[in-house]
Amino acid sequence: MDLGNLGIFKLMSRKMDWLTQRQQVISQNIANANTPEYKGRDLKSFSFRDALSDNRRLTPAATDSSHLAGTRGPGGLAKEHKVRDPYETAPDGNNVVLEEQMMRMSQNAMDYQTMTNLYKKQVMMMKMAIRSGG
Q: What are the boundaries of the region Disordered (predicted)?
């Protein structure tokens, strides 16, 4: 039995994939905190309501002509968008605020841990149901 085919597990996996992609974007923002003219980015927020109503598959978006086509797995890459103009922009044009990025990273880690715990609880419930014959 593949748990990935069940609705709740599919949604939790999509959320965890989104959180992984967001972690990568936040890491890029932090890595470029001192790069002149770098503009911080973030992913479009994930909502279960949208995920339930979204029946189409996302396709990878090439942001550079040197990217290889088809290197992302099914489901594609969540679309990135520029972060709102923060209250602080460096004289060199960089708008990454490290404190803000660290807060996002912490929130992202907590959300990922929550999804992991939910996933474990669902698996435990399935095992209990199988063992009890119900």
A: 54-93
What is the DSSP pairing of strand 80-82 with strand 41-43?
A: antiparallel
* pTM metric for this prediction: 0.66
DSSP classification of residue 6: S
Contact call for residues 30 and 101 (beta carbons, < 8 A): yes
State the burial class of residue 26 (Cβ atoms within 10 Å of its Cβ: 0-12, 13-18, 19+): buried
Contact predicate 103/42, CB 8 Å:
no
Q: What are phi and psi of 53, to 5 degrees?
A: -90, -10
User: Who contacts 111 (Cβ-Cβ below 8 Å, separation ≥6)?
Assistant: 15, 19
